[in-house]
Amino acid sequence: MSDTQENEPMVISTIADKVCNKLQNAIVEGVIPAGSKISEPALASEFGISRGPLREALSRLEACNLIERTPNVGARVVTLTREHLVEIYLIRESLEGLAARLAAEKMSDKDIFELDALLEKHKQQIKQDQSYYQKEGDMDFHFRIIKGSKNSHLIDMFSNDLYHLIRLYRYQFGMVSKRVPRAFVEHEQIVDAIRQRDGELAQFLMTRHISSSRRNVEKMLDEHLAITD
Amino acid sequence: MSDTQENEPMVISTIADKVCNKLQNAIVEGVIPAGSKISEPALASEFGISRGPLREALSRLEACNLIERTPNVGARVVTLTREHLVEIYLIRESLEGLAARLAAEKMSDKDIFELDALLEKHKQQIKQDQSYYQKEGDMDFHFRIIKGSKNSHLIDMFSNDLYHLIRLYRYQFGMVSKRVPRAFVEHEQIVDAIRQRDGELAQFLMTRHISSSRRNVEKMLDEHLAITD
DNA sequence: AATATCAATATTGTCGACAATACACTGCCA
DNA sequence: TGGCAGTGTATTGTCGACAATATTGATATT
Hints:
The first copy, chain A, has 229 residues and is mainly α. The first copy, chain A, has 2 domains: 3-77, Winged helix-like DNA-binding domain superfamily/Winged helix DNA-binding domain (Arc Repressor Mutant, subunit A, Orthogonal Bundle); 82-228, GntR ligand-binding domain-like (Four Helix Bundle (Hemerythrin (Met), subunit A), Up-down Bundle), CATH 1.20.120. Chain A has 10 helices and 3 strands; from the N terminus they run ααβααββαααααα. The first copy, chain A, has helices spanning 2-6, 15-28, 40-47, 51-63, 82-106, 109-128, 130-148, 152-173, 180-195, 199-228, and strands at residues 37-38, 67-70, 74-77. In chain A, helix 2 (15-28) crosses helix 4 and helix 9 (180-195) runs antiparallel to helix 10. Chain A is globular and about 55 Å long. Chain A binds chain B through residues 13-14, 17, 52, 55-56, 59-60, 62-63, 65, 71-72, 84, 87-88, 90-91, 93-95, 97-98, 102, 151-154, 156-157, 161, and chain B through 13-14, 17, 52, 55-56, 59-60, 62-63, 65, 71-72, 84, 87-88, 90-91, 93-95, 97-98, 102, 151-154, 156-157, 161. The structure holds a DNA duplex (30 and 30 nucleotides).
């Protein structure tokens, strides 16, 4: 699928790699529901493999915070909570603000040109179908900025941890937002600050952009809770 | 050892837990040198266990960035570089600035009282022996602030990733610093901002504190390189 | 009816063996 | 002499079985 193609596809060398990838997607898409218990024998049987590589895969899923493992009890998909999502957004503000600042310093002119092209592509997509942009285009943009930071540890932190959780929350909480046109303008402004090599402004705008998203998400979740209560 | 007691000791339930803990310390302390290849059969033999739990432990070490694993080739302790250390410091500025801001909002009066007590304890230790403070007291202080953020994801990110790497770099690069008295004053100022519930100031001071440490580290590393060249 | 206890069953952690892959060494050729 | 190919060995990935631990269901007690 194109989402994994755009955002550094996992290299599949071993059975564990393959199974980990499949389980990541199954969890994010809710095929294995949040909070549910994971059975090693059942999954191993389903994949037609032994429990050894399955446990390797589970270990990696634990590392990217999609599951929690308890010794002698087993693994369980994480429970999604408003609190946790807000926590993640706060961390995103912090780290992506840094990424934007570094991107303003580090991105090549070619990188920035490609970022512009990506924005143009997103502009066309918004006119046709907003849902595609909401699902993966936004993440694509953010990931490009993080890559532009040239801070490999930051890129790893995002790729191995935050990315999957953000996808999971988006998928499960069905975040269709009225905010798209405004968010796109903010993307453009961030890129402009980067193009001007103004790190401080880029950081400010990115932090503010994610902060607005957080407030929007908080509001939506509160409304969602009000409905279900 | 008291460093692990203060900073959330790993709960030992399985052989893999135990081996992971031992390997973490062996890597941080240089018993297994940076860059070196890890042999599963040799380590399993040394610990008197099968390769199964050893691989579990290696998977966890990979998750906390102490080793890198390549399929069908094996595991290797990470190589320490100036670039990587600077990357980590930049991320620390970002995340610990956030932590300090949240701590100013979230810490209870009791928490703050205990933080004061910790500072007083460190003051006494500085008078007697600066090396203890340099090794773990500083981390202790920082970890308290991060815990005070009450952002569980942030605490996990620190505990599972940054903490080990910081220890590793400190141990291997032998960071004895002339900066201790000044750094302690900065700690006091950060706590004061938190006590005043001034999140913006706490964040500013913490970011600046770590930025100063980064510059100090960069300078030391440059001097170190000059000597060895 | 609710709670506690016990035994059976299922699951998780670990073991040792086999299959697949990479590495190291030797010999041959240009 | 240097590079390449082939072979043997070591290491990594996976398998299935056994041991240890937790869970579930049935029964007894209050």
